[in-house]
């Protein structure tokens, strides 16, 4: 793959403080590497609920199964730190479109979160009192991105993609896809929101933005988009309800090994 351009200031992934404080105008994003040692993975497995263990067993490939266990174990560990609860004591519920949330007794009134994982890397977004969505995409070389864009992107996005130099189009496609996925995940309505009914920015080097929404043009004003730099060959985006929030990015719990 041709070297990908840097489209924004690199995200500063730091190690979290011993005591986590999440204010009402703060968003925290965590990055985790999912290929853990067997002992750590077994520890995570013991914190999962029965339905999570069942879902893990449905994966055909062992690597996918192990990464699922680690991804959900890390999620429970992170949320437990904010709520001062043991990870295995947390309970989740799911919307009609599958968006997870904490049940009320586990702190569902206090914490909102979303997660995404791809090819051994996971991202977790945590906030209070506002909807949030996050998406992580591994930039694959084997996709016919222009054909996929024709099916799912808006006319404006398709035109913008076509106007880019050929060598940038694949990267721009994944920027667009991650931003669109983050937004619909934040909305929690899945693909009941047609992907061609809203426009996001996709030109490399320009800020992530929700440019327009249809049929309600004011909907775009409710949301903020942010690009995240995660690792080589990944695209990631964060969608947050409202504006005026600050972002902190944490590494769980050790540096990400090179995925180049």
Name the features:
disordered C terminus, 260 residues, three-stranded antiparallel β-sheet, alpha+beta, globular
Provide the low-confidence segments as ranges: 255-260
Which value, in Å, is the CA radius of gyration? 18 Å
Let me know the number of strands: 11
> What's the helical proportion of residues?
25-40%
Q: Can you summarize the main beta sheet? A: 4 strands, mixed
Mean pLDDT: 91
Q: What is the strand content? A: 15-25%
Please provide a written account of the structure:
By secondary structure, the protein is α+β, with helices and mostly antiparallel strands. It contains six helices and eleven strands. The chain has helices spanning 38-45, 50-57, 62-83, 145-152, 155-163, 166-187, and strands spanning 26-33, 92-94, 100-102, 112-118, 121-127, 132-138, 198-200, 210-213, 223-228, 234-241, 246-252. The strands form four sheets. It has a four-stranded mixed beta sheet, covered by helices on one side. The longest helix is centred in the N-terminal third of the chain and has 22 residues, at 62-83. The N and C termini lie close together (10 Å). Residues 255-260 have low confidence and may be disordered.
TL;DR?
The protein is α+β, with helices and mostly antiparallel strands. The protein has helices at 38-45, 50-57, 62-83, 145-152, 155-163, 166-187, and strands at 26-33, 92-94, 100-102, 112-118, 121-127, 132-138, 198-200, 210-213, 223-228, 234-241, 246-252.
Give the helix/strand layout.
Blueprint: E1 26-33, H1 38-45, H2 50-57, H3 62-83, E2 92-94, E3 100-102, E4 112-118, E5 121-127, E6 132-138, H4 145-152, H5 155-163, H6 166-187, E7 198-200, E8 210-213, E9 223-228, E10 234-241, E11 246-252
Parallel strand pairs: 1-11
Antiparallel strand pairs: 1-5, 2-3, 4-5, 6-10, 7-8, 9-10
Helix pairs in contact: 1-3, 2-3
